[in-house]
Amino acid sequence: MSFTTIFFDLDETLYPTSSGLWPAIRERMNLYMQERLGFTKEQIETVREKYFREYGTTLRGLQANHAVNMDDYLAFVHGIALEDYLQPDPGLRAMLEALAVQKIIFTNADAAHARRVVRAMGLDGCFNAILDVHVLEPYCKPMRQAFEIALEFAGESEARKCVLIDDLPRTTRAAREFGFFTVLMRSTLRQGFDKLNLPAQGNAYSVGNDSPSPDANATLARLIDLPQLLDGW
Questions:
Q1: Using 50, 70 and 90 to split pLDDT, how confident is the model at 152?
Q2: Which of 56, 71, 76, 171 could disulfide-link to 140, CB 3.0 to 4.6 Å?
């Protein structure tokens, strides 16, 4: 394997879409906007879509327009019993331990949430570091500055030596343009264009088709199959 660093997205990449955890987090986001900021239920989806597209994440939009405290927001939206959604995954742990490269969680969430997810999945000790929203501030994926920070954070001098795995096409597309080798998790394609469950843009993706997405170098249905995919490149 010619790659020396792999960046793993967290939500709906490290764990499968089928867990149901992300919809639960999304509901907590909606509840925060309703209870703390006074948005009506009818306004929330429109505002979240707008902020997601314009600022990269709902949080960045709320910070810019409503002076939301990042730590308060993150503590609220991640206030979920993870054991109701995630279980230890010995097979995934064995795969990660066998990868002889630097492994970094690269997330728009915070490190506290990432550590809880890792612990719930029985993956403690499998990652070298966590690159989170605090390190990226004021940027976030898919901004180019986020990938520049990631490259420096990993101690890498060449983007081509890095793999980025994510479930959002816009992130893998931007990372590929930056120079990373990108892997798009296919499971999210069954749910729509992004984590807001917006409609897919055209017919670019075909679930069940092994050909790569135009937004990534490769697509992957199960994270445990990553070594075979990378060996093929």
A1: very high
A2: 56
- Please tell me whether residues 185 and 70 are part of one structural domain: no
Check whether residue 128 and residue 91 sit in a common domain. Answer: yes
Q: Which domain holds residue 44?
A: 21-77
Taking alpha carbons only, the member of 154, 157, 114, 117 closest to residue 134 is 114
Structure tokens given for 217: 């170098």
What is the average per-residue pLDDT within 50-71? 95
Do 225 and 113 share a structural domain? yes
Same domain, 214 and 101: yes
Show the tokens assigned to 1: 């394997």
Residue 129 DSSP code: E
**Residue position matching structure tokens 């867990």:** 19
Give the CA diameter of the chain.
Answer: 51
Alpha helix (H) ranges present in the chain? 21-35, 41-55, 58-66, 70-77, 90-98, 111-120, 133-136, 144-154, 169-178, 226-231
Nearest by Cα to 123 from 164, 162, 167, 82: 82
Give the pLDDT score at 55. Answer: 95
Q: Is residue 82 part of a domain?
A: no
What DSSP line would sit under 148-211, residue for residue?
A: HHHHHHHT-S-GGGEEEEES-HHHHHHHHHHT-EEEEEGGGGGT-SSTT-PPPSTT---TT--S
Question: Residue 181 pLDDT > 60, yes or no?
Answer: yes
Res. 118: pLDDT tops 60: yes
Mean pLDDT of 39-49: 94
